[in-house]
Amino acid sequence: MPLNQQHQVEILKDILTNHQEDCCGSVSELQQLQRLVKSLMADSSMNNEVLEQIYLYSQNGINSSNLDNHIETHQEKLSQWVSDMDQFS
Questions:
Q1: Is residue 40 within 8 Å of 4, Cβ to Cβ?
Q2: Is the distance from CB of 81 to CB of 16 less than 8 angstroms?
Q3: Distance CA 55, CA 38 (A)
Q4: Range 1-26 burial, b when 16+ CB lie within 10 A, else e
Q5: What is the 3-state secondary structure (H, E, C) of 27-82?
Q6: Residue 27 φ/ψ, nearest 5 degrees
Q7: Predicted confidence (pLDDT) per residue in 14-47, tens digit
Q8: What domain of life does the native source organism fall in (predicted)?
Q9: CB within 8 A of 63, min separation 6: which ones?
Q10: Which of 23, 37, 40, 89 has its CA 20 to 30 A from that of 8?
Q11: What is d(CA 22, CA 18) in angstroms, rounded to the nearest whole number?
Q12: C-alpha torsion angle, residues 81, 43, 47, 22 (rounded to 10)
């Protein structure tokens, strides 16, 4: 059963919130973010600018030599993205 847009947004927010609160994460979480963002970008009602930023954050994190540091340097943006995603849920 595929996830609807609301469920996808909630999962996206959960992962971003965990990164923001824990200052750590995993490559598999970043890959999940990418899959969610790609799916959400197919919906024209979503803010593609925010989704593109999250996608780049994920991509750069996957390629980062120090993932925890990558997450720590994006703390402010993580909070903003979660806030931005609230308008979609």
A1: no
A2: yes
A3: 8
A4: eeeeeeebbbebbebbebbbeeeebe
A5: HHHHHHHHHHHHHHHCCCCCCHHHHHHHHHHHHHHHCCCCHHHHHHHCHHHHHHHH
A6: -60, -40
A7: 999 999 999 999 999 999 999 999 999 887 677 7
A8: Bacteria
A9: none
A10: 23
A11: 6
A12: 10
69 close to 25: Cβ distance less than 8 angstroms: no
- φ/ψ of 37, rounded to 5, equals -60, -45
Sequence-distant (6+) residues with CB within 8 A of 58 are: 30, 31, 33, 34, 37
Average pLDDT over the chain, rounded to whole? 91
C-alpha pair distances (Å), 7 with each of 1, 33, 36, 59, 83: 12, 13, 10, 22, 16
| pTM as predicted | 0.91
